[in-house]
Design goal:
The complex is a heterodimer of chains A (178) and B (530). Chain A is mainly beta and 178 residues long. Helices cover 6% and strands 46% of the residues of chain A. Classes of the chains: A mainly beta (178), B alpha+beta (530).
Chain lengths: 178, 530
């Protein structure tokens, strides 16, 4: 991440990984209101929100992620977030530079990756299969639950990277649909 | 309430040990809980473990331990032969199965019995008889217990000529109804049917899922009772023929048939309703010749009628709330009766007053699951771990700071229990205890429990079993939104503090990271993140 010199700065704070609807990146002024934050220790902050309620935030160790953003784990009221922090102006430039054409949703290869660690319980497709959007590609078992992984759009299975019974970690490549 | 009460043969305890050595065929918090009971009785313990649990708490706490195999349960904790061998090798006289894994497999109980080892639980014959839900329904109905309306014989699945009679049965029961697996549990093999036209497909799908899950595709029909509460009765019997009911638990807060919160007593019942319920449960248990601990499950409908569902022949995950209300140790009693001793005076006295309880206990199941994403599993490495304490709080867990929650097993990581004089005080105590609870590194169900403890509907008592599925997705939104707002501000504050002179450096990180946290986190990132 580039040095943060000068003040005040706008930072873009996003939710890493698969954020839920309504959890898009938000730009916040760095020096917004020091009175709303009380540091208890280096890993614990008390944040008073606009609703007047003080909430304890457990903050992890920030680490540098790819492309100059910083990531940090924050837990508030039991909710755990992995937040990305980036200079807002820089983030905007990067977003424009890397924004893919809207056609990306209907063409190009789609990598299906594991979202949780587990075991491949069943493989329902093989390379060369033509699949419909929503069709089950494989079944992953984790913690007694079976989760069906489905094609996000129609296409042809280019590659199946795992076999039945194989143990997988979050992020492992499972299937490529073109 | 007590079915038969022969003269007591001895006083409690008297320093005698029911066994010299017991093998605990389980992992996680329940293995630790059983080892604790054994230690208090002076019994040596043998733990078994998979390669995922080499450093697990139950292995560290036991006197001896035996490796079963690789991480997957089918290659370790479900290997009946290896567990019986481990008991033989170590000279264990008894095996306690805990819950889950092999606890309700009649074949395992029989293998233990055949090896001349005591199975701490009901006999293999009782497990087999009650494990067949249809058989249990028939036995309970024959004993005069009101069972959930439905069929008592298997539904014909593969015979088109018999379909008309199944549809006749279904119309007689009324819609919506449920197709359920005779060997079922946890909602597997279950299908909801709203019209006769949907029935053939539901029968086929339910039967196929039951075959895949249990190796038995037998299904039957049951009326869907909604709204309903899930209320269950703790039972325990001894070889002398005494069967007692130790009060009831309300486990209505469920998500897709997985219990999330349990309490005892069930709110809003009067003493005569409790007595009738306990008597029904004992009737069902006596019909099945119950020895040791079991639980009879009922649905309680909006007309205040109880309908028998099934009997689980094991110690339940939620047994602790009963222990807190009755002030007894159920695992200790299980060991007593497994050794052929009669139930203790203490537990019999507790059963006598179980219809008029003077305490209220609540348990929440803290699981490594994401309540914002339909409770999907969230295994990984725990960072911070702060559990509540103080008066009236009990925490049953087997993990701690820096521990790994493996993806191979049940996501339950801690049971937080509270007890107080009445329900309102117990809820306030629960709110206080949950506010003290901190887990980082993995997402847990803590936000769900915080919301429930503060919910006015829960405070009034009597929530229906479909409440979580219907309400939670909407209920969680505002709380998560304000938490995210606070988290974003905490994040930029942290970024500001660490970016005065440029990119973050190690010394900054080190100033608030204790050794274990850093080790766990770096390892955790390598293994689990994205």
């Amino acid at each position: 991440m580039a040095p943060m010199t000068g003040a005040p700065r706008r930072l873009r704070v996003g939710v890493a990984g698969a954020s839920l609807p309504g959890e898009e990146p938000l730009d916040i002024d760095l020096l917004h209101d020091p009175a709303a934050i009380r540091r208890i220790d280096a890993g614990t902050l008390v944040v008073t929100g606009s609703d007047g309620v003080s909430r304890t935030a457990r903050v992890g160790l920030p680490w540098s992620a790819a492309s100059g953003t910083r990531e940090v784990e924050v837990v508030v009221d039991g909710w755990r977030f992995e937040l990305t922090i980036e200079d807002a102006a820089r983030a905007e430039l990067r977003r424009r530079a890397t924004r893919a054409p809207d056609a990306a949703a209907t063409s190009g290869a789609a990598d299906i990756r594991a979202i949780i660690p587990g075991r491949v319980a069943a493989v329902r497709v093989t390379a060369g299969d033509v699949v419909e959007a929503g069709q089950t590609l494989l079944v992953v078992e984790a913690m007694k639950m079976q989760n069906e992984l489905r094609a996000i759009r129609a296409g042809t299975v280019e590659r199946v990277a795992v076999g039945e019974g194989q143990t997988i970690d979050a992020g492992d490549l499972l299937v490529v649909v073109r | 309430m007590t079915a038969v009460a022969p003269a007591s043969l001895r006083k409690d305890g008297e320093g005698k040990r029911p066994f010299e050595r017991v093998l605990v065929a389980n992992r996680g918090e329940i293995a630790v809980r059983i080892i604790r009971a054994c230690r208090e009785l002076g019994i040596d313990t043998v733990a078994v473990y998979s390669d995922a649990d080499v450093d697990a708490a139950h292995v560290r706490l036991a006197d001896e331990s035996v490796r079963l195999g690789p991480a997957p349960a089918v290659e370790s904790y479900l290997r009946a032969d290896a567990i019986v061998d481990a008991a033989r090798q170590t000279g264990a006289e008894a095996i306690h199965p805990g819950y889950g894994f092999l606890a309700e497999r009649a074949g395992f109980a029989r293998a233990v019995e055949d090896a001349g080892i005591v199975f701490v639980g009901p006999s293999s014959a009782t497990i087999a008889a009650l494990g067949d839900k249809l058989g249990a329904r028939r036995a309970a109905a024959a004993a005069g217990v009101a069972v959930v309306p439905g069929t008592l014989e298997p539904a014909a699945v593969d015979r088109p000529d018999a379909l008309a009679s199944v549809i006749d049965d279904a119309v007689g029961i009324g819609f919506p109804l449920l197709v359920k697996a005779a060997a079922g549990g946890g909602g597997r093999g279950m299908r909801r049917v709203t019209t006769p036209e949907e029935l053939p497909a539901a029968l086929a799908a339910g039967s196929a899922e039951a075959t895949a899950s249990f190796g038995d595709g037998t299904v039957y029909l049951e009326r869907e009772i909604l709204p309903a509460r899930h209320i269950e009765v703790q039972l325990i019997g001894d070889r002398q023929g005494t069967v007692i009911a130790l009060g009831e638990r309300d486990c209505s807060l469920q998500r897709r048939h997985q219990k999330l919160v349990e309490e005892s007593p069930a709110p809003g019942l009067d003493a005569s309703e409790r007595r009738a319920l306990h008597a029904s449960a004992i009737t069902a248990a006596v019909a099945a010749h119950l020895e040791n601990a079991a639980t009879a499950e009922f649905l309680f409908d909006s007309n205040r009628r109880f309908w028998f569902l099934e009997v689980n022949t094991r110690l339940q995950v939620e047994h602790g709330v009963t222990e807190l209300v009755a002030d007894v140790d159920l695992v200790r009693e299980q060991l007593f009766v497994a050794a052929g001793w009669p139930l203790s005076e203490r537990i019999r006295e507790a059963a006598e007053v179980a219809a008029e309880p003077s305490r209220h206990a609540i348990q929440v199941r803290l699981s490594a699951e994401d309540p914002a994403r339909d409770f999907t599993p969230a295994p990984g490495w725990i960072g911070r771990w702060e559990m509540p304490g103080g008066p009236g709080v009990r925490v049953d867990t087997a993990v701690g700071p820096g521990a790994r929650v493996p993806p191979d097993y049940d996501p339950l990581i801690a049971k937080i229990l509270v007890v107080d004089g009445d329900r309102a005080s117990a809820i306030r105590r629960l709110q206080r205890a949950l506010a003290e609870t901190v887990v980082t590194g993995i997402q847990t169900t803590l936000p769900f429990h915080l919301a429930i403890a503060a919910d006015s509907g829960f405070g009034e008592g009597g929530l229906s079993i479909d409440w979580v599925d219907e309400q939670w997705a909407e209920l969680m939104r505002p709380g998560r939104a304000v938490a995210l707002d606070a988290a974003r501000i905490a994040a930029i504050e942290t970024a500001a503090a660490s970016a005065v002179d440029g990119p973050p450096r190690e010394p900054l990180v080190a100033q608030f990271a204790s050794g274990w946290a850093r080790a766990a986190r770096s390892e955790g990132r390598d293994r689990w993140h994205r």
